[in-house]
Write a structure and sequence with these properties.
The complex is a heterodimer of chains A (about 350) and B (about 270).
Chain A lengths: L3 E9 L4 E10 L4 E5 L6 H9 L6 E6 L2 E2 L10 E4 L11 H11 L4 H14 L15 H13 L5 E5 L7 H18 L3 E5 L2 H7 L2 E6 L2 E6 L1 H6 L4 H6 L4 E4 L1 E3 L3 E3 L5 E3 L10 E4 L5 E3 L5 E11 L2 E8 L2 E8 L15 E5 L6 E3 L12
Parallel strand pairs in A: 3-8, 3-9, 6-7, 7-8
Antiparallel strand pairs in A: 1-2, 1-4, 4-5, 9-10, 11-15, 12-13, 13-14, 15-21, 16-20, 17-18, 17-20, 18-19
Helix pairs in contact in A: 2-3, 2-4, 3-4
Chain B lengths: L1 H31 L17 H8 L1 H34 L5 H10 L6 H19 L7 H25 L3 H9 L4 H30 L15 H11 L4 H23 L2 H4 L1
Classes of the chains: A alpha+beta (about 350), B mainly alpha (about 270).
The complex binds adenosine-5'-diphosphate and magnesium ion.
The site of magnesium ion (MG) has 2 residues of chain A, from helix 1.
């Protein structure tokens, strides 16, 4: 059993189900990201763990103790809010000391721990400032230090980077991850930014409309998505509607027969194929396709293909100069080739296929 | 651009005009208080502080000032905590359908003309005196009870406005760090509401200190507030003594506003 366990927790509101039977086990020192589009129930899940939202059903365990009914102040979680939620009338030092004060930590130890937390968050010399005298990035680090200094059993972060500019976000991402690993913090992190989740988390929980679609490492989610939603949400993916024929064959509406992983037809009705696993060639093996558009992106080139009426995106490292593929232009006939093992049948629910899947 | 310059000039004139209209009576009172002659006429024969000396000699003004000061302080001390609690209940408690009614009730005294409320209170006091078999009208507690009514709507409005802008996440953060509900209130909520509460104190004090209409029927012999003392004086004489007293009043209220503004920026809360 992990440090944090969610046992089938749900949260229903009058008109919506914000969270539906979410199960999750977070191990000691593990960093888990809740990832999903806006409104999928990430914040509600986090707030149930912190104790601000009572679950409609299910149980929450922290360090083996059932805290489902415990008030927020009795849970030993450290939360970083999206808005930082600093105490505006207290100095940085007082903000960071607050949790220790509540835990009745002796003065001398409190001062030492505050100093250490400020050092870790690179806030030395700012202890006597008020929050409004700090930049956004500094305020964000105060919020981190304030939550970390009490050494919580579970560290909770709700989109802590969303109010920072892009450059700072990339830096703080690395900082938070380094701190979390150094202190061995059990962490639940909420984000709608897949890059953030992929680069920071040990494991990801992909949520959609209140439900967990898949839990796994970044690699597992990317290579072996459980359904069309996960395949489309993590990275880019060609998601093709059609009919599975005899194992290893998939029929597109336009009549083309695509090679795929031999699976039982009931596995799903959507064929998922990552664009970088498709090779585009001018001669040799492959399925005949017509080039619709070519986008040169420096290191990579995107090829938009039309395969008997089915749109397909292929991405490849830009070929060297002199390679015949460098001269490809819209309208040209090309050949598309992939390892059948890369094309998988996935189940799909209504709404799982975004219109711009390719 | 010429158009926008013209607009800006027109705006400037309008603002100056509005301020002039508001401040002219105040300035007139201050100016008249130092004219030496009894019947006001321009230009003054000479300037003097004689009316201030006269006001000081009329002990009813000094006594009225003392009563008004005490009354305003006590009414504020009682009304602001009550109003703050009411504002918190309005915005936080689960009140269901009662919320709207309660809100109207608490802000009600603002809508009732002072004379009407004063008459109603007078009649109520007469009835209540019969029940408790003791004096209420003309007593200090009777006046305090009436003036608390004046302070509550202002406090509810100002504190409710502060509560609107309050970041609930800060309270949640405190709870998350281990603070119990009452500690959250004492250490986080109340300090964050401070500007609203300070402004409520100021406005409550001024409301009580300057009130004439509501108080008129409730004062008793030897228990007269400054505005009522001024009105009484007016029945016998019309001379700049009243302007002198009013100038002292204006100075006190002005000083209070300046001091308050140093603690909380009033323009941000009101
Ligand atoms: N207090 C509430 N009352 C009613 N609906 C709510 C409440 N809080 C959240 N919801 C709904 O629950 C769903 C999930 O919200 P939320 O957890 O904030 O999503 P996320 O953080 O993933 O964007 C949304 O549809 C939202 O409208
Ligand atoms: Mg959210």
């Amino acid at each position: 059993m992990g440090t944090l366990t969610l046992d089938a927790i749900s949260r229903r509101y009058a008109t919506t189900v914000a969270v539906e039977r979410v199960d999750l086990d977070v191990a000691q020192g593990e960093f888990v990201a809740l990832l999903g589009p806006s409104g999928c129930g990430k914040t509600t899940t986090l707030r149930m763990v912190a104790g601000f939202v009572p679950p409609s059903s299910g149980r929450i365990l922290i360090a083996g103790r059932d805290v489902t009914k415990a008030p927020p102040h009795g849970r030993d979680t450290g939360m970083v809010f999206q808005s930082y939620a600093l105490f505006p009338h207290m100095t940085v030092g007082e903000n960071v000391a607050f949790g220790l004060e509540m835990r009745k930590v002796a003065r001398a130890e409190r001062d030492a721990r505050v100093r250490e937390a400020l050092r870790l968050a690179r806030l030395e010399g700012l202890a006597d400032r008020l929050p409004r005298q700090l930049s956004g990035g500094q305020q964000q680090r105060v919020a981190l230090a304030r939550a970390l200094v009490v050494n919580p059993a579970v560290f909770l972060l709700d989109e802590p980077l969303s109010n920072l500019d892009a450059k700072l976000r990339a830096e703080v991402r690395i900082e938070i991850r380094a701190l979390q690993q150094r202190l061995g913090l059990t962490t639940l992190f909420v984000t709608h930014d897949q890059e953030e989740a992929l680069t920071m988390a040990d494991r990801l929980v992909v949520m959609e409309r209140g439900r967990v679609r898949q839990i796994g490492t970044a690699e597992a989610l990317y290579e072996r998505p459980a359904d069309a939603f996960v395949a489309g949400f993590i990275g880019r993916c060609n998601l093709l509607r059609g009919t599975p024929e005899a194992p290893g064959r998939f029929r597109t509406p336009g009549g083309a027969l695509l090679p795929c992983l031999p699976q039982q037809a009931h596995h799903g009705q959507v064929l998922a194929l990552r664009p970088e696993r498709i090779a585009v060639a001018t001669a040799g093996d492959g399925l005949a396709a017509r080039l619709v558009a070519v986008t040169y992106l420096g290191a990579q080139t995107e090829y938009h293909l039309d395969l008997a009426g089915t749109r397909l995106l292929a991405i490849a490292p830009t070929p060297a100069e002199g390679d015949p593929r460098r001269a490809l232009a819209p309208g040209d006939a090309v050949l598309a080739l992939w390892d059948p093992a890369e094309a998988r049948l996935l189940p799909a629910e209504p709404g799982d296929l975004p219109d711009d899947a390719t | 651009m010429a158009g926008s310059r013209l607009q800006r000039a027109a705006f400037g004139v309008a603002v100056t005009g509005a301020y002039g209209l508001i401040l002219a009576p105040v300035l007139a009172v201050i100016v008249i208080s130092v004219f030496s002659q009894e019947i006001v006429s321009f230009p003054p024969q000479s300037l003097s502080l004689a009316w201030y000396a006269n006001a000081w000699e009329k002990r009813e003004f000094a006594r009225g000032f003392a009563t008004s000061l005490q009354l305003a302080l006590v009414a504020t001390a009682i009304g602001v905590p009550l109003g703050t609690a009411a504002a918190l209940a309005l915005s936080r408690a689960r009140l269901g359908g009662v919320r709207g009614a309660l809100n109207t009730l608490l802000l009600g005294p603002l809508a009732v003309p002072g004379v009407v409320a004063g008459t109603a209170l007078y009649l109520f006091y007469v009835r209540a005196e019969f029940w408790v078999d003791d004096d209420i009208k003309g007593t200090f507690p009777g006046l305090v009870a009436a003036h608390v009514l004046l302070t509550i709507p202002w406090t509810v409005r100002l504190v409710a406005a502060s509560l609107q802008g309050l970041d609930r996440a800060a309270e949640e953060a405190a709870a998350n760090l281990g603070a119990r509900p009452f500690t959250v209130f004492r250490r986080i909520t109340l300090p964050m509401l401070r500007p609203g509460v300070v402004a409520a104190c100021l406005f409550s004090f001024i409301q009580s200190f300057e009130n004439l209409e509501l108080t008129l029927l409730l004062v008793g012999p030897g228990r007269t507030t400054l505005p009522v003392a001024m009105l009484n004086y007016l029945e016998f004489r019309v001379d700049p003594t009243l302007a002198a007293v009013a100038t002292v009043q204006i100075a006190l209220v002005g000083a209070l506003m300046l001091i308050t503004d140093r603690f909380v920026s009033l323009s941000r809360v009101v």
